[in-house]
Amino acid sequence: MNSNRWVNIVEVGPRDGLQNEKQSISFDDKIELIQRLSRAGINYLEAGSFVSSKWVPQMAATQEIFSYLKDQSNSKRTYAALVPNLKGLESALKTEVKEIAVFIAASESFSKKNINKSIEEAVATTRDVINEALKHNIKVRGYLSCVLGCPYEGQIDIKTVVQLTKQLIDFGTYEVSLGDTIGVGTPFKTRELIRALKEEVPVSKIAGHFHDTYGQALANVWVSLEEGIRTFDSSIAGLGGCPYAKGASGNLATEDLIYMLHNSGYETGVDLQKLIDAGDFINSVLGRETNSKVAKALAKN
């Protein structure tokens, strides 16, 4: 295996994809989705979030899910959880979770509207969570949202993104995933941002999380690959809409990402057909059509 041709996939469907779904999804169906994704060769899954079920009812079973999965984690497969604060970390520790993700936004307005904290307050909370997690030998991945645009502020200053990325890495995250939260980024803007980041942080510590609201996600992945990034977040069947653009697609579909990578000389270890089957399963549970163009095209053949 040529390591430069290997791309890591972070599957966020079970968490980011399902968290805003209106209908209730059973514990058994969530476990079935996670297991189908694992059998397809996905080795990193974000399986839930330790947040208040009052605010995110879909994540109410996260503790039970991780208690169930704890015996299935190994050196090759990671089940991670999003943890917003120390209370969430306390819950995560009870399930012996091995890895968590933390998040901050590069937009002051978005941070206040999303978590009711300023960037400075969010950074302080995140630092405390990271410090406590590392004490328990839990690996920490970072999310930085709104890196290419904000629904309230528009364009975000690249210097702000670079500064916050550096802070997350300095605090102890092994990787920071750059989130184009509303999907407004273009290949030109993506390359410009990555090149600015590469002057300050190792490219091996940067990942990409692109939304497809404006149809730019795969193009942004491509320029990221050219700049040396080798880890990308995506969501099975394109689960997870963009709340700021009604009816628009949100997360990049994992099927579409895998198809492009495999047909461009990259390796992922993922079986595309098994991945599509996993997407068919969760779409049948939700009673909806897939947002994956590849899954739709192959279904017609």
From TrEMBL:
Residues 7-276 form the Pyruvate carboxyltransferase domain. One of its GO terms (molecular function) is metal ion binding. It is an enzyme of class 4 (lyase). It comes from the Bacteria. Its EC number is 4.1.3.4. One of its GO terms (biological process) is L-leucine catabolic process. InterPro entries: Aldolase_TIM, HMGL, PYR_CT. Belongs to the HMG-CoA lyase family. PANTHER family: HYDROXYMETHYLGLUTARYL-COA LYASE. This is Hydroxymethylglutaryl-CoA lyase. It comes from Acinetobacter baumannii. The lineage of its organism: Bacteria, Pseudomonadati, Pseudomonadota, Gammaproteobacteria, Moraxellales.
